[in-house]
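Q: Hi! First time asking for a complex rather than a single chain. Here are the components, and I think there are two in total. Is that enough to go on?
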Amino acid sequence: MIKRTVLKQRSQLLQQLRAFFYARSVIEVDTPMLSVAGVPDPHLHALNTRVQVAGKQKPERYYLHTSPEYPMKRLLCQGSGDIFYLGKVFRQDAISSRHQVEFVMLEWYRLGFSMFDLMAEVTHLLQQVLSTKRGGELSVEQLSYQQVFAKYAGIHHVFSASAAQYRACLAQYNIPEIVGVDPEDKALWEQLVLTEVIEPQLGVEGEKIAITFVYHYPASQAALAKISPENPEVAERFEVFVNGLELANGYHELADVSDYRARFETSLQERKQLGYASIPLDDHLLFTLEQQPLPDCSGVALGVDRLFALQQGFDNIDQGISFGLGES
Amino acid sequence: MATYSTNEFKNGLKFLMDGQPCSIVETTSVSPGKGQAFNRVRYRNLMTGRVLEKTFKSGEKVEAADVVDTDLQYLYADGDFWHFMDPSTFDQYQAMEAAVADVTKWLIEQDMCTVTLFNGQPIAVTPPKQITLEITDTDPGLKGDTAGTGGKPATLSTGAVVQVPLFVQIGEKVIVNTEKGEYISRAK
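A: Yes, that's all I need. Here is the structure of the assembled complex.
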């Protein structure tokens, strides 16, 4: 059972996060959780429900949001200015020590911020939340995707490495045997080197926790981030790791509607290839972007249950939530 | 043959790996949010007792293993096999040495044991947690020492050797814990 002291700490964290944004004139928005559309990214699995809408014979299918990204972007197009969302999102993934089906997300967008500007703001926020409870300022490391493979896996040319090199790396680090992956599936072996070899070493400095940023992900993993103007092989996307745990994922956001359409189309194709169900695209978002492109901005989504677990030193995020799915 | 997909994985699930029966000790799902999901699995090979690790791509399948724990009565050993019987059906089972090697010194005829069957064949035997055995050999010990301050080895009727207090003598019956191989007390 969760103790009152833990509930109180969690309440203080939520208050602290809101205060951080109020102090910067970023306003809170509470966008809808239900939408007729979903995120086509094949690795996000949305829950859905049926809603009886007036004038319809049968209940209509609505998707629970996996993040507030699309409605927030519509608000940005319509001139909202800097905004944040702090609330529940839903993702159909197996429950583990680091994932719950419904979890609290903090997502924010900053006009005129570059990817590096936003990384600096994320650092401020994390130092504020983590440093007092975890023994002072955390050391911060910023590495590109390429540098992180070189430093933590000994793979110096990630964009030209072969599947065999990745497999050899996993063996060298004594990673248990992997079942079900085609020996030549380079992208998947690269992912495994990242999740099995590299990520556990990120955000750790000796005995202490630290903050590690990984940025300039390959263009193939751009999601909705801009491609770097200096290097077309990489996207202006970053992730943040603390104590081996992925905490946040941010982009310098795509602005143009034609880019959105192209990325959505690719995602729908990937879904088809993987045999996943298709999902309706967000016409409201596409329509809004057509009228008015997204203002230049960067945005980031951060897992608050993970942040709270890190702040408190919990091994499992369920130690910091009132009731998990098994008890709800 | 029944199969289990990774989303059915849970602790205690019995499956076949390289033809050998295994049981899941721990399973953790890893969903990177931007890539393919995997399951990290720790499992025990039920033939060897070794705990191993493998990572399965989400959606991979394993074959179910026909493994059941059943309560059987130990009958006798004939030199090649150890014989057990289901007292309700009178079905008999022969266990090979590999299945009983660790526990032969705790097997007493007529005792009920938990026998793990794989495809109907015994692969492991767990004797009762406490059993009573007679001491067949031990040092007489020092006269007058009844406090049991020290200990001495004693050989039991099954051949097992345990540490017993000095005051326990040949011919007496003692209760022992079979998991730890320890003396508990004298039997009345």
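A: Chain B touches chain A at residues 7, 28-40, 52-57, 59-60 (CB under 8 Å). Let me know if you'd like any chain examined more closely.
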